[in-house]
Design a protein that fits this description.
It is built from 14 helices and no strands. It is mainly α. Helix 10 runs antiparallel to helix 13. The two termini are 27 Å apart.
Length: 278
């Protein structure tokens, strides 16, 4: 109990120091358009349900951003996981795809902005599924395919690399032992290979989600965005509402940390054995 309290205390030292530096700097600058005080930012959170600069409440913008990120992330993962497994399992498939992936992987996701607009234009989830015009169309029309594409690109590469690495680094003795005992290739694949590679797969999903969430601001800068935390930040900057910019940044950081903690909980609960085998 004492050690746990000590760890919590240590983890709070740097955030507390940052808050002190922030408040002292804001008092010294005395200009809210450059650096607002902590109290001004806290006031935004206390009135989180207000309609900020005509873009809706903070919870609404977070909800819109979450839908965007999860849409792009899901699309990237659905391609990356099967491809990564196949590349790790089959050398021929790895040779076919690895060079192309290595060429495109260093390109920042935001560099795809012009091409995303050229490819998809203003197409949205509403237009793709041919929804009838109405409240649902207006809502889903805010989720542009170009935004989903950018977030998906950010998520794809770390996931496919981690999945391939995990499958390739399954201990050969496990596979050989299963073959000696008469296991079929199907059983080896589903009952040995995938479970043994699962920690790396989860880690890849975790990193992919973090990068996809980090692409949010750039994706929401694309034309057609009328809501979302990223759009709120960019629009607030244009109006010199730096307090709202910082509020949005804090929202992105906190929500991102909460999403990351989900994978951390899964890893600690189901793959605690991995640290004991090192």
């Amino acid at each position: 109990m004492q050690n746990k309290f000590k760890m919590i205390l240590l983890s709070l030292i740097l955030p507390a120091l940052l808050l002190i530096i922030w408040e002292l700097s804001a008092i010294w600058v005395q200009n809210a358009t450059i650096l607002p005080t902590i109290g001004k930012v806290l006031e935004n959170f206390m009135h989180a349900t207000d309609n900020f600069i005509g873009l809706g409440s903070i919870p609404r913008n977070i909800g819109v951003s979450l839908i965007r990120v999860m849409s792009g992330y899901t699309a990237g993962v659905l391609i990356a996981v099967p491809l990564g497994v196949l590349m790790g399992y089959n050398k021929t498939i790895q040779q076919v795809f690895e060079t192309l992936i290595n060429i495109f992987r260093p390109i920042p996701p935001l560099a795809w902005q012009p091409l995303a607009l050229a490819f998809f234009g203003m197409a949205s989830i509403a237009s793709v599924f041919d929804m009838p015009f109405g409240q649902q169309y207006v809502f889903w029309g805010n989720f542009k395919i170009a935004m989903v594409f950018l977030i998906g690109m950010g998520s794809f590469f770390p996931v496919v690399a981690s999945v391939m690495f995990g499958v390739q680094n399954v201990r050969q003795t496990l596979i050989d032992s299963a073959r000696v005992l008469g296991a079929s290739e199907r059983d080896i694949f589903f009952k040995i290979l995938l479970p043994a590679a699962a920690p790396s797969i989860i880690n890849g999903l975790r990193v992919g989600l973090a990068i996809g969430w980090g692409c949010l601001v750039g994706a929401e800068m694309l034309p057609g965005s009328l809501a979302g935390v990223g759009y709120l930040i960019t629009h607030a900057y244009e109006l010199a509402r730096i307090d709202l910019v910082i509020t949005g940044m804090i929202c992105i950081g906190v929500v991102g940390a909460l999403l990351d903690s989900i994978f951390k909980i899964i890893s600690n609960k189901y793959f605690f054995w991995e640290s004991k085998t090192r």
